[in-house]
């Protein structure tokens, strides 16, 4: 698949205009950042550079931060046998490091019933799907189509012939190792009962790229990372190469983070602070017509203090 052509130089350009990009920092944290920021040295007022410049400056700050680990320098565990869909532990109590849970849907803003008239977003109330598993894998190559692999969670259900449908988001960050963070969502009701999702699952790649949205949120961690990641809804397929695999009982999105220089830079920054972050995300299909509104989240996730050295190594 060819990378979508675009004149944009930042993921921020793809976000909904009604969202806010920067998290509002605590006053003391903001003052500390300004005092030590290379943006403000020698100036009485803070100068805001271009989005690409912000990413470069933040990367430089991360590199100088004690304990920073570049993606290409991170080691990996030697564990080689695992069950796809269960390599990252679940912790609904939010106490274990390097674990996953679901995030509160109300954290995220989505298009309401009257969005086409008032451009107003509302807090999400629920999700369409249930998150049932996650993978945190490292490899020397891309690990695509995890849902189609024998012995995995999705194929276990397929073998039983049940009605469940799975939606897998597999985010891949390249380096000397390829890191894959795969999130598994299950739909228990018939796919046909959800017209917008049904159209997405059975649509072509151009349609899918124009509709799939991710909303990020760094709920705990450095303000530097919060500023870089933001919290705006982004049409992923307009910024990154996404490979879609349609299986009998699933659709998998393999998202190549390395296909964008800006996204790759932000990812390297996040990895430098990874075990000090709580990352929340929501996924949805953008609603563009009155009939499709209001939007409904497909699912959410909360990633608690991930550790790149604890990723499971695929051989």
From TrEMBL:
What Pfam families does the entry give?
Answer: EDR2_C (PF07059)
Superkingdom in the source lineage: Eukaryota
User: Where is the chain membrane-spanning?
Assistant: none
- Chain ranges of the Protein ENHANCED DISEASE RESISTANCE 2 C-terminal domain: 100-307
The entry's protein name is Protein ENHANCED DISEASE RESISTANCE 2 C-terminal domain-containing protein
Native organism is Brassica cretica (Mustard)
